[in-house]
Amino acid sequence: xxxxxxxxxxxxxxxxxxxxxxxxxxxxxxxxxxxxxxxxxxxxxxxxxxxxxxxxxxxxxxxxxxxxxxxxxxxxxxxxxxxxxxxxxxxxxxxxxxxxxxxxxxxxxxxxxxxxxxxxxxxxxxxxxxxxxxxxxxxxxxxxxxxxxxxxxxxxxxxxxxxxxxxxxxxxxxxxxxxxxxxxxxxxxxxxxxxxxxxxxxxxxxxxxxxxxxxxxxxxxxxxxxxxxxxxxxxxxxxxxxxxxxxxxxxxxxxxxxxxxxxxxxxxxxxxxxxxxxxxxxxxxxxxxxxxxxxxxxxxxxxxxxxxxxxxxxxxxxxxxxxxxxxxxxxxxxxxxxxxxxxxxxxxxxx
Length: 351
Fold this sequence. Notes:
4-stranded antiparallel beta sheet, 12 helices, globular
């Protein structure tokens, strides 16, 4: 006998816990925000003893990939600023370090990378696959799990339709019998595994993203491209305060128009990838760590900056000072109301 259990990777458990509301700013929505925080705090309490995902997150997100991971300058000497501003004075050609490259894969061993690439090929073609304990020893199964987490970090759209399930024995033993692929429509409340429906959903998602990229202003600077993509996401997605759309937590929110912080962050990373722009995801919380949260890191002129489209969207509309407050933030600026829990350090400064 065996028991099949949906496996949520440690990194992907974070979205379930994300509160990502900006209650200290949007006081007019205080009642709604408090209800959201209560809901998220309850979820956090259910997992309060499961802190292992923090370590896994750090393993994946600690890769520099061009980021100068050094202690932030505490001397107050802020001599650098990004010159690629809205003035358009910067050359529009992106440097090699500024384009999007998969970053979680760089944390993997050769064996983990092998499974990363093998799973990637199968997922793209919706090919079912299974890794059994009879075929692979426990260490290899662990490597497959690590590879899968990295794969989902580098390819945020996969979460819209793919899951890796654990299969356990039913004799009370916690040993894993197998890891099984599962393809389904995340955007539907009732699980739908029809391959044609899955492909149709993927096609709609890709079409939506392609239309956004195609409408990007010509000759835009890197700054303007990043800003444009954040604007599009902010205009197309509303935060799901009441948890009315529990099935839409990933980047598919750009199609449905409803999501939470992980959806904003995953969608922004995916759009940046489509536009060949450097972008990472950042894991953290609000200052008192009552709500976990995710946002992004971008690169301008070789320096990195934080972008939080979720909180920008809550606080205003593109062009407003309140919205712009959360775009291209320095490390000092993001730490005014965020707590970073994965070690990410933005290297950009303002004059």
